[in-house]
# Entry
Amino acid sequence: MRTYVEGLVLTAISCVAIWGAWQVPAASPGDTWAGIVPFAAAVALLALSGFLIIGATRQSAGEAQSEPDNGATLEIVGLFIIALIYQQSFRWFGYLVPTAIVAPLILYIFGVRSRIGLALSVVLCPLVFHVIFFVLLGVFPPYGEVFDLLNWIQG
Amino acid sequence: MEIFPALLSVITDPMLLFAIVLAAFVGMIVGATPGLTASAAIAMLLPITFYMSPLFALAFLYVIGKSGRYGGSIAAILFNTPGTAASAATQIDGYPLARAGKAGKAMKVATISSIIGDMMGDILLVIGVGFIASIALKLGPPETFAIYFAAFVVIGSVIGKSIVKGLASALMGILVAMVGLDPISSEERYTFGSFDLSNGIGLVPLMIGVFVLGEVFAQLEERRKTQGETKENDSTQDGNNLTWEEYKPCLPHALRGGFIGAGIGVLPGLGSAIAAFISYGEGKRRAKNPEQWGKGALEGVAAPEAANNAVSGPSMAPLLTLGIPGSTIGAILLGVFLIHGIQVGPTLFLTDKELVYKLFACGMLGIIAYGLIGYFGATQVARLILKIPTNVLYPMIFMTAFVAAYSASGSMFDVTVMTVAGFVGWLMRKHDFNIAAFVISFVLAKGAEETFRQSLLMSDGGALIFVERPIALAFIIIGAGAIAFRVRGVLKDRKLAPGGLGDA
# Structure
């Protein structure tokens, strides 16, 4: 079943890729078509997904056993959602505020239960990363469109 | 002979020497920490190297890669957990030795063999790389494309559990690299009207995502599976010392492993794990005491360790001469070259020859650095690793991934790419797709496309140009042969285990 789903997902990806390559305008005379490599790669991927599906249909039921998940996938999807929100919140609130919120959250997810440790991470994580990357390395920090703590601190 | 002035120049630069020693130590820690890989560390540190000189940046990351390969043996021998895939072969005999109270002895054999193998690889690289570059200069676009084709096929089909998934990973890497403006006609491809996508997908955020964030996701999953505590194996005083009489029988295995590793290292994508297992198998076949192998033979540590490390130097040959990275570390180093505006390929030996040889010199000094640290302090390094709280380490790596991806070019889009790449990387790993093939193909795709289209222009659109030229044909046959060889292997395995289904 798992291989079958993988084959179907690959088929969907290759169909989108073929359609995307087909959108590339034709080449001008004497030139090569800009879509030739993506098109060829997408068609090859479609063929491979076909192999995967054929293989899955021949697979015996006994082999399709997958290892127990223990809810780990759900936890990882949750972490991915936090990651998405975290990176998006840079645009709204700059670097400091999102990091101060996310640091204890991630530490908690990874099993840190010390209240002092979690409280310290609220201050230390944004401070340390800010000093290393935005002060010592001189990278220009992301500006928060809604509210930027750094801007507020610097007046 | 260029290596000698390069060595002299590096030795007389205290800052560079400090960077080499630091990189050797960092690499060892990273390699020895189960779950952390040298690729992840290098990807994470990549944005920091933007602010360094090219040699400093390359030497720092290159030595981390070398030392990381060696560091895997510390975890394999002392914790019974291979720090890297390649050190799984070392674990076979290393851990029984550690359980017998000979952890120190096993570590010393691993260290000496690693130094021998790595040094052999580097010497062969220094001798051979100029020769390969001079040949590469004579290759036209069809030949270069054929080499790219062979690299894609070998990387996709030879490594990993599944040929179909390996090749699919390589094709997905190519497709992701095609996002953005076509470099020849400036036509948009896969941009779906997005301005951000028209600039393409950046190498640095993609690598940080796949190797660093993807690893954090994988570790979160791993935490649920393994709740046990890792313990170090103590050595007795006798088990800590290594005499020449004890190492003497290991020397032929280390030398053979060095040649096996160097040979495999030149071929893109095969990597150190394959070299280590081939060397172990070959060593056991030729050993005077094969019955002892697997139960705690010192030769069983020497053979895979030498081969594992010998891969490091020669894997730089296709990268530097053809722009084809042979490993994920090579792919990341290619990114460093590009970031610093250095064009990798045969012309590198005309434009930046001094830099290349200085890099080799740094590599050799890095071997000595990790050798000394490992020989005298491997057990202390192991104790240090046991003290690192992983429940703090991985959250810190998680947050570093975001700020590192942003620092690469100050782009929030890069952070989004990194986040998505991290999740996709974890999904690919979970479903046995080959992330090394995905990343290396992503790096190779642009060069391959350029040479492919140049070849088509040369032949007025005829694909026969790849068959008419003997060198191009030879590489295409190598590619096809690699698939045929692997398919044959899968079919053979299926016969041995009736009812099993491969994927070929």
